[in-house]
Amino acid sequence: MPADRGIATKSLSFQDEAPHWGSIEIQEVESVLELRALSKHYPSHRAVNGISFALQRGEFFSLVGPSGCGKTTTLRLIGGFEEPTSGEILLAGQSLAGTMPYQRDVSTVFQNYALFPHLTVEQNVAFGLERKRRFGKRDIREKVENALALVQLSGKGRRKPNEISGGEKQRTALARSLVVEPKVLLLDEPLSALDPKLRKEMRSELKSLQRRVGIAFLFITHDQEEALSLSDRMAVMNRGVLEQVGTPRELYQRPASRFVAEFLGGLNWLNGAGVRPEAVRLSRERPGDGSRCLSGVVESSIFLGNCLHVQTRLEDGAACVAELPQNGCQFEPGEAVHVFWRVEDELPVSGH
Amino acid sequence: MCSGESKTNYQFPGTKVGRLRAVFVAPSATVMAVLFFAPLLIIVAYSLLSRGPYGGVMHPWTPENYRRVFDPLYGQVLWRSIWIAGAATALCLILGFPLALYIARAKRHRTLLLNLVMLPFWTSFLIRIYAWMFLLRDTGLINTALQELHVISQPLPLLFNTGAVILGLVYGYLPFTVLPLYATLEKLDPELLDAAEDLGASPWSALWRVTVPLSRSGIIAGCLLVFIPCVGAYLTPDLMGGGKTVMAGNLVQNQFTTARDWPFGAAASLVLMLLVLAIMQILRRRSEELL
């Protein structure tokens, strides 16, 4: 496990270079999962259109994008539930072409958990172990107990899925998929069925779980905050293609396209440059330090608890949102303000 | 207008809503009382009387009829009814399950397929049994064809035996297994099968470990819908069995017609009814445990 950590962090040291495909950068390590020009075409549309990336061992990789971008289809292709139109999927160097889901060494955690309602939590977790007398009864029981302890569900083994909470169902699904020790764990928006507070808790639990287990996670979500906070590396997907692959920092600070820039965070277009709301500052007086500056009128000031979103209308008619600390200077609608930002904070993305 | 708020949905008979409810239930209750419970009580009364000289019943009251029902001779009939009905139920399940599964998983034409399953009900049951007799008898279609093709020299005894009776019952009651099974299988979440395969179960393994356990209620419903009528069947064993296979239904029918022993017939039918109720209760208890 520590060796895997070393490999993962090695990729992070390439931060200062431009974003690039993961599989090209690291030659000496065989990636645990590799997609090569994978496509899935339907008569009506192209769900997945020639995507390629590689997952490293022990990596937490997120695939993020809006609904309908093809991320779930990608997951199903890897899991074996759909057949690709073209392209290859390689698991630890071996092609998965022609293999059925039950022959593939990947496990999926489904969005709605897909727990077997007629089995207890223990029996659900043991399901993947009980084939063709591969493990003895005692071995199975031990593995199941360890898996339940790993997700903090010890003692709830005898319950049925309809007797446990949403968070517990999710942890059961995780235990069930992890106990078979897959090479890659595929997670299909596992947190979207939870309420917001539970989601945040489960996020950190999920991250620490992944670190402990050391298995590569391929995490699908439409929530960019989740992807940014959890991933070692991530990819933004749009309409069947990968817009960019890299570390969260790389994607946020140096987005390769307008789509990636706007998807991962708020974005203002000021003087033809993209500027994040948190980099925009407001002042009643004109700043004299040489930063870029525009004039505008405050339209609204929204208190979000931890920050303030102040919307201003600029002189050229464009709208601009500034994210300001909530305990700082307050602005009232109708006030004339100066909007300014540093040149370094402009994103290297063109505004069309 | 309710008298205050009620914590449960149940309204006690004294309240206004309770009385309104009684009014609406009254018609069905009357029908049930007149057409079901009253005749049942009459049958119970008959079973405890003695036979009249030309049929009918008369005094004295006697429990003798019940003693006769448990005579080994008639016990045999009862036992035969149960195992024939059991065999028919098992065959209906074996044939009906794959059919229901196929229809439930069909992407198109589901309604058409269901209609095809129910199509036989549009014709008379009697005519369909006669059709089978036409196919199976010594000078029937099958035997004639096989003899013409020189596959056999003597006709096969396909009719007038227990096998033919079971065939007739299975043919008649197969749709009764297919429909409840379809109803349960159709509700099965396909993602559960994906999950099973994802965890390493082959489609066959997933069928036994996921699909079948989850369709248990449909299986039990289908079995009951076949078993209960089959135990009391008399038309099919009479025609397909040539009168040689005597089931409980034939026995009872006999008593009320040729044998003119109504009390005995009444006793036999009540014993049959209690037997079926007992089996139903056991199955119900088991299905509740499992669920």
Strand content of chain A: 25-35%
What is the second-level CATH architecture of the largest domain in chain B? Answer: Orthogonal Bundle
CATH fold node name of the largest domain in chain B: MetI-like fold
CATH superfamily of the largest domain in chain B: MetI-like
Average pLDDT over all residues of chain B: 87
Distance between the termini of chain A: 44 Å
Number of continuous helical runs of chain A? 10
- The CATH homologous superfamily of the largest domain in chain A: P-loop containing nucleotide triphosphate hydrolases
CATH topology of the largest domain in chain A: Rossmann fold
Note the run of SSEs of chain A as H and E: HHEEEHEEEHHHEHEHEEHHEEEEEEEE
Q: How many separate domains of chain A? A: 2
Question: Oligomer, anyone?
Answer: heterodimer
Description:
Chain A is of the alpha+beta class. Chain A has 2 domains: 2-105 and 182-261, P-loop containing nucleotide triphosphate hydrolases (Rossmann fold); 266-347, Beta Barrel (OB fold (Dihydrolipoamide Acetyltransferase, E2P)). Chain A has 10 helices and 18 strands. The longest helix of chain A has 18 residues, at 196-213. The two termini of chain A are 44 Å apart. The relative contact order of chain A is 0.13. Residues 1-28 of chain A have low confidence and may be disordered. By secondary structure, chain B is an all-alpha fold. Chain B has helices spanning 16-47, 64-69, 72-105, 110-118, 125-136, 141-148, 162-186, 190-198, 203-214, 216-231, 235-240, 248-256, 262-290; strands at residues 50-51, 57-58. Helices cover 71% and strands 1% of the residues of chain B. The radius of gyration of chain B is 25 Å and the shape is globular. The mean pLDDT of chain B is 87. Chain B has 2 domains: 1-47, no CATH class; 67-290, MetI-like fold (Orthogonal Bundle). Chain B has a two-stranded antiparallel ribbon with strand order 1-2. In chain B, helix 1 crosses helix 13 (262-290), helix 3 crosses helix 7 (162-186) and helix 12 runs antiparallel to helix 13. Chains A and B meet through strand 6 of A and helix 8 and helix 9 of B.
